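Much of the work behind modern protein science is quiet bookkeeping, done one molecule at a time. Below is the pair of lines this work produces for a single protein:

***
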Amino acid sequence: MEAVIYMDGRRLHSGTNLSLAPAPPVWTGRQRPLGAADTPRVLVVDEDPDTREAVEWGLARFGIGVLTVASGAEALGFVASQAVHCLIVESRLPDMKGTDLIRALGHEAPPCFLIGRALHVRDVVEAVRLGARDVVEKPFEADELISRMVQSAVLPQVSPNRRAEVLARDAAGTNHGSVAARWVAHVMTLVNATEDSKTLAAWARLVGVSYSSLCETCRLIHIKPLAGRDFSRVLRSLVHRNRHQCSPEVLLDVSDRRTLAHLIQRCGAASIEEFQALTVSAFFERQKFIPPDHEAVKLLRRALQNTLG
């Protein structure tokens, strides 16, 4: 077995030919101070590529630098070598809980925000006790996250000129009606697909557009991309349930009961049995993903009625 020795930041391999390599960075509990002139930098720690890309896309519009990693170990290694203004930490990481990462970082670490779906009260309490600046439940808008970070004095205030510039660019050349029709077409493609699209990236590939284009379509009609995805996935499960005479939850590619319970609750159903009996019409009236009176939802409902007869 090869012996490995670390000495003064260098890695020494035993054997005839010794090679020198830098040791992996180790978090020491303190990072390089950030100056006022430094571009705001946020580290997103989340296994879900949709969340990483959505936060990166949303914050970058306001001139905020975003770096992403998928695990707690990667985050510890990253902050040991690079300075960031704050961390956005998912509550359930593949190698540890989000609160365990916050605890490992310690009080000298950059400010942390805990995010997650269907968060337990004990996790929220523990995160705050460990020093988390805020806890944000998924799904959320990038603008909401920026406001929370500004209120916590973690990020500098986004200048009014930058905000106005972003909003003007969003509004330029867009027709709300045509965007709503495009969104309906994207949803209908997912509803008619043979397999569930559990991520925004998968939905984008299915409809043949880029990830950013899909998010932009949702946002321009004031629909949160993640909420639009979950709305479409559940709608697909109900439509295919009617077509194939099977239970709707088996058509959802969901890996854990908490996520399924969250989706069912957002459908307006109180139990799995109530969800199984839910009709497409009742789903449109009771769902909490998107306001039922939203123009795009009404347009989708008419399109679906024409398709289903």
Summary: Residues 175-308 form one domain.
